[in-house]
Automatic annotation (TrEMBL), chain A:
Keywords: Cell membrane, Coiled coil, Membrane, Transducer. One of its GO terms (biological process) is G protein-coupled receptor signaling pathway. Residues 1-12 have a biased composition (Polar residues). It comes from Brassica carinata. PANTHER family: GUANINE NUCLEOTIDE-BINDING PROTEIN SUBUNIT GAMMA 1 (PTHR35129). This is G protein gamma domain-containing protein. It is found in: Cell membrane. It comes from the Eukaryota. GO terms for cellular component: plasma membrane. Residues 26-100 form the G protein gamma domain. Residues 22-49 form a coiled coil. Pfam families: G-gamma.
TrEMBL record, chain B:
This is Heterotrimeric G-protein beta subunit 1. PANTHER family: GUANINE NUCLEOTIDE-BINDING PROTEIN BETA G PROTEIN BETA. Pfam families: WD40_Gbeta (PF25391). It comes from Brassica campestris (Field mustard). Belongs to the WD repeat G protein beta family. InterPro entries: G-protein_beta_1-5, WD40/YVTN_repeat-like_dom_sf, WD40_G-protein_beta-like, WD40_PAC1, WD40_repeat_CS, WD40_repeat_dom_sf, WD40_rpt. It comes from the Eukaryota.
Length: 100, 378
């Protein structure tokens, strides 16, 4: 970054302050222009996009296709580990940590 | 070019971006001909019905002496790591309820923790702005202090969330109050990629949460205080693949849907939302009006194995709604069941096989919930 000349009291000259503001605004402008390009690309994609109802159908099909241990009613196959939480522990081990 | 000319161009560019955003919003509204709950009702679907003792608290994990802030399951073998205000990570065998490790952290202000895919290391992060890695085979001293095996430093704000890349013990992603996410190489401690930040497009507020896709480990979602969620490709950090709008408050939590092609969010605006990755459509809003009309922030979410159930913790005493994601209705509140938590649920996680949900709370406990009723298999 350019450092402007300073006057006898040590203050930076107006030129250095102006340069710093200019760089920041330039960087922000670049980001905005980049953002505009991304948004235009997205708009183009949306022109050919399906309605939400197509995505909703996919969603239902996905949910219905997977077994789920937490549902009262589910498709199979059932995994034998689903009910492990209600079985007697195989062995009791001493707690391994020192604290508390 | 002079400063005033630049400022003029800046104003024009801002106007262009705002116009484009408006056009996008309008176009998306045109495409939203229905949502999941209307579509499901039209298909004649009825809500999930739980019996009074179907979902039960089958374990309470006692040991922390402060609020639990974060938890993570191993991909296998039913172990959980939790992080607490008491400045410790505890590793639990969820089946036996026993603690295998209680690690005293160098910085007590921890916000997040994660298990590595092989279950041999844990990571945590918080207000110290670093992510610390601990090997579970290291020996702790009597106080529980374990040497840090790697420190991932470089964020310029708090580390809000950390997640290992699926099946990659050497890589993890962190999200931060410095508005970026970072992909780290754990073996070298160096940044591989930075997502967002000062010089790249990305979030414009603190990033609070990340979630990886189970089906594509190159994709992850981030949620931010700027009210958006972003989809990122780890191979292309210069820009988000897509930004998802809709929330009206901080997006506190994001979670991929089990099939990896949709994701859920939870926000300070009191809603959870479901988004479609490919199209960007907001497929559903999950919102239940509170008695006094105020929006209760959503603190954390988790999907059941099929995605039919969405568990959501809220910022009040113990409420944990179980949403039927198809019908958009609350079908259960874990906070009203026997043995429920006595304070806010701050974190949720589903076990790898989907048979158990773990909840962590400000009451300092973790609880395991499973289905103990009669299951009908069709």
């Amino acid at each position: 970054m350019e450092v402007g000349s300073s006057n006898s009291s040590g203050q930076l000259s107006g030129r250095a302050v102006d340069t710093r503001g200019k760089h920041r605004i330039h960087a922000q402008l670049n980001r905005l222009q980049q953002e505009a390009r991304f948004l235009e690309e997205e708009l183009e994609l949306l022109e050919k996009m399906d309605n939400a109802s197509a995505s909703c159908k996919e969603f239902l099909d996905s949910v219905d296709s997977k077994p789920d241990p937490l549902l009262p009613q589910t498709i199979g196959p059932v995994n034998t580990t689903w009910d492990q939480w209600f079985e007697r522990p195989k062995e009791a081990k001493r707690c391994g940590c020192f604290i508390l | 070019m002079s400063v005033s000319e630049l400022k003029e161009r800046h104003a024009v560019a801002t106007e262009t971006v705002n116009n484009l955003r408006d056009r996008l919003r309008q176009r998306r509204l045109q495409l939203l001909d229905t949502d999941v709950s209307k579509y499901s009702a039209a298909q004649g679907r009825s809500p999930v019905k739980f019996g009074a003792t179907d979902l039960v608290c089958c374990r309470t994990l006692l040991g922390h002496t402060g609020k639990v802030y974060s938890l993570d399951w191993t991909p296998e073998r039913n172990r959980i790591v939790s992080a607490s205000q008491d400045g410790r990570l505890i590793v639990w065998n969820a089946l036996t309820s026993q603690k295998t490790h209680a690690i005293k952290l160098p910085c007590a202000w921890v916000m997040t923790c994660a298990f590595s895919p092989n279950g041999q290391t844990v990571a945590c992060g918080g207000l110290d702005s670093v992510c610390s890695i601990f090997s579970l085979s290291s020996t702790a001293d009597k106080d529980g202090t374990v040497p840090v095996s790697r420190t991932l430093s470089g964020h310029r704000g708090y580390v809000s969330c950390c997640q290992y890349v699926p099946n990659e013990d050497a890589h993890l992603i962190t999200s931060s109050g410095d508005q970026t996410c970072v992909l780290w190489d754990v073996t070298t401690g160096l940044k591989t990629s930075v997502f967002g930040g000062e010089f790249q497009s990305g979030h414009t507020g603190d990033v609070l949460s990340v979630s990886f896709s189970g089906s594509n480990r190159n994709w992850f979602i981030s949620g931010s205080c700027d009210t958006t969620a972003c989809l990122w490709d780890t191979r292309a950090a210069s820009r988000a693949v897509r930004t998802f709008h809709g929330h009206e408050g901080d997006v506190n939590t994001v979670k991929f849907f089990p099939d990896g092609y949709r994701f859920g969010t939870g926000s300070d605006d009191g809603t959870c939302r479901l988004y479609d990755l490919r199209t960007g459509h907001q497929l559903q809003v999950y919102h239940q009006a509170n008695g006094d009309g105020e929006n209760l922030p959503v603190t954390s979410i988790a999907f059941s194995a099929s995605g039919r159930l969405l568990f959501a913790g809220y910022a009040n005493n113990s409420t944990c709604y179980v949403w039927d994601t198809l019908l958009g209705e609350v079908v259960l509140d874990l906070g009203e069941l026997q043995d429920s938590h006595k304070n806010r649920i701050s974190c949720l996680g589903m076990s790898a096989d989907g048979s158990a949900l773990c909840t962590g709370s400000w009451d300092s406990n973790l609880k395991i919930w499973a289905f103990g009723g009669h299951r009908r298999v069709i």
